[in-house]
Design a protein that fits this description.
heterodimer, A: mainly beta, 0% helix, B: 111 residues, 6-stranded mixed β-sheet, 5-stranded antiparallel β-sheet, 11 strands
Chain lengths: 116, 111
């Protein structure tokens, strides 16, 4: 859905660099989800955030990955010291209220991270 | 916790029907269905909230069997535009804050 904006669409990083992925949810949405999709695989849940709160980060690797959703501005998924295995498409989705209850999640077009 | 979908892949000729199943080992609160075309974002198809609920979207419909902890997506008289990967997304009763996507089913419709 064009309403969820992710940038950049494509990101190339060398091993050891940092990657910052941005997601602006649809207007009026206060819930953001990040998913990772490896080539030819399904979507794996990473983290669920509300404004200024991390609700569930059970899918996020314990090291190098972090996410935030500040009161103002987009949600950021940060990957420090990237490795080749981090290469994937990262999708952000937003919903107007808590996870999937009576609502659908709208997805952004994704950021394709390539680590060289 | 990831729901399992079957089949993993299916090839149809235009006009044929298909059924995609989504099964969970945990009690489900709701089931969502999405379709993703290669290189694109998943697109929402429908939500099923109640056990036994059935919904339809064009010639695509779905059912939700809460007791069996599964949902099925029915595609009738398939069109070329139906090609893509179909994912179910499930909300569990004990973790109602987010949903998990299933393993995915690749559907290819050929002329």
């Amino acid at each position: 859905n064009a309403g969820v904006m992710q940038n950049p669409r494509h990101l190339v990083r060398r091993r050891g660099q940092e990657a910052r992925l941005r997601c602006s949810p649809m207007k009026g949405h206060s819930h953001v989800y990040w998913y990772r999709q490896l080539p030819e695989e399904g979507l794996k849940f990473m983290v669920y955030l509300q404004k200024e709160n991390i609700i569930d980060e059970s899918g996020m690797p314990k090291e190098r990955f972090s996410a935030e959703f500040p009161k103002e501005g987009p949600s950021i998924l940060r990957i420090q010291q990237v490795v080749r295995g981090d290469s994937a498409a990262y999708f952000c989705a937003s919903s107007p209220k808590s996870g999937g209850l009576n609502t659908e999640a709208f997805f952004g077009q994704g950021t394709r991270l390539t680590v060289v | 916790q990831q729901p399992v979908q079957s089949p993993q892949a299916v090839i149809l000729r235009e006009g044929e029907d298909a059924v995609i199943n989504c099964s969970s080992s945990k009690a489900l609160y709701s089931v969502h269905w999405y379709r993703q075309k290669h290189g694109e974002a998943p697109v929402f198809l429908m939500i099923l909230l109640k056990g036994g609920e059935q919904k339809g979207h064009e010639k695509i419909s779905a059912s939700f069997n809460e007791k069996k902890q599964q949902s099925s997506l029915y595609l009738t008289a398939s069109q070329l535009s139906y090609s893509g990967t179909y994912f179910c997304g499930t909300v569990f009763w004990d973790t109602g804050n987010q949903f998990y996507f299933g393993t995915g089913t690749s559907l290819t419709v050929i002329p």
